[in-house]
Amino acid sequence: MVAKYERLAKSLAIYRVKNSNNFYARIRVNGVEIKRSLGVSDEDEAKFRAWELRSELENRNKQGLAILANKKIYIEDIVNNVIIQLDSKKTQLQIYKDYKTVFSNFIIPFFKNVEIVDFTTKKIRDYFDSQELSVTRKNINKTCFKMILEYLEEEKIIKKNDIPIIPKVKSFKVEARDAFNDEDLKIILEHLPNFHEIEKNGRKANFKTVEYRKILNEYFLILLETGLRTGEEFINLRFNDIKKKKHSYYKDDLLIENDNYLVKISKGKTKKYSNGRVIALSSKAINSIVNIGKITQQDKNITIDNFIYSNKLILETSFNKIAEFSDIFKQFTDYLKESNLINTHYTLYSCRHTFITKRLMQGVDIYLIAKYVGSSVEMIEKHYDNYKLSQQAHIDSLTDFNRNELELKAILNNVSYTDYDDIPPDPTEAELLSFYNQAEEFFKHNK
């Protein structure tokens, strides 16, 4: 039995390390030195395994496969190398951020501690089966796996014939992200300002959570007022990205002035347009932005007069973090559901749908809406035409309902008709003529 080290052949030896009963092998193949535990304490068995291991490594070398010093190769290490490759590309495409998000938040956690030998088609299928992916997310995930497989082949870690296959994946229909109905929006606006005070299991939220929730309240109002996409469109904006521009004109020899607050949106989907888009912010949106400044920069005495001079990211907390506001909003809506206050599923993206739908119902030109929200007229027509079907005037025309007659009956009988079942029988022609005559007299004296 050897004490510490025994050479078996050129470039092959076995040895023991301090405080270990097992033998280790030291092997050199093609200039690469490998040290591995043989997992046995018996000397003869250790020698046999050392010879066997050297034979295996030499065969891999002859086949052109990688000879790595580590016995176990983990998928996590491969993915991290792919991410490094993405970061090293001279041209950084916007989609790379999506790839890295999928790698870091989904693929690595799923394949944690999974070795290359277990990285099979079945394992990849298990991954996709565990996800509910829209068409877009499915394609992003498939591209990520293609990059992993290409890396394995190019680095000769796996032989081409042994490369796993990306299975066919079913796409899931994305859950509808509804616009807020009036009653639910009223409830949300009533409870969101106090969400930071809500306790969980009798414990108050810590100061970070409180600040996140206070910012969420203002962020929600900003999204309602602007229709901006959640995520990069707003998350990259700084206070000093907002520019104040005075507007003045004369009317009846009087000088009329007001301040317009403008901001350029250059991130997110708008990024594909070289110049981005410039939008005007409502007074409500500006007030919420100022309020965020007061929350996150208490030492700066932020006001309507000086907020545009701050270089801080608008959504950045006093402790220099930006929350996942979509997750916090889900916590809030879950709380409302548990309290039986709302039933409909909403996301922060519902603010955008509400903004667009509201402006359409107000008769704002669809072209102006499209330019403002960074969409196309065709896209808005495709996804928002249904709002017309919910308008009472359109319902009346489609159902041939005579609303003028209903209103006339209400006026003449001084009765509020609020339900179809409460409407009296249709009047005769004589009664109708009498109604019209009475109505004419009524409006003569009630202009």
From TrEMBL:
Give the UniProt keywords, A-Z: DNA integration, DNA recombination, DNA-binding
Decide whether keyword Metal-binding is in the record. no
InterPro entries in the cross-refs: DNA_brk_join_enz (IPR011010), Integrase-like_cat_sf (IPR013762), Integrase_catalytic (IPR002104), Integrase_recombinase_N (IPR010998), Tyrosine_recombinase_XerCD (IPR050090)
Question: What species is this protein from?
Answer: Marinomonas primoryensis
The Tyr recombinase domain is annotated at 175-400
GO MF term list: DNA binding
Name by which UniProt lists this protein = Integrase
- What Pfam families does the record tag this protein with? Phage_integrase (PF00589)
